[in-house]
Predict the 3D structure of the following.
Amino acid sequence: MLMCKDLAEIASDYIDGELSASQNLAVRMHLMMCKHCRSFIGNLRASTDLIQAHSSAKVDEELMRKIDQRVAAALKARDKD
Ligand SMILES: [Zn+2]
């Protein structure tokens, strides 16, 4: 039987879908019985989503900055001719 501390150790793998089928089942069985772990997983999932949203926003920002630089460089090169 999976204990709360065991679940805490594999929680991020569970959210990422990286557990084996039997581990996944054990986590689900535990979550059905344990509301503490349900809220723990819920919070962890929410913060994981937040981190992913932030990191993708960062990538977009970086991309936009590079595009701006290329546009500026292209305009500069054009003005030289
Ligand atoms: Zn638990």
Residues 4, 7, 30, 34, 36-37 surround zinc ion (CB under 6 Å).
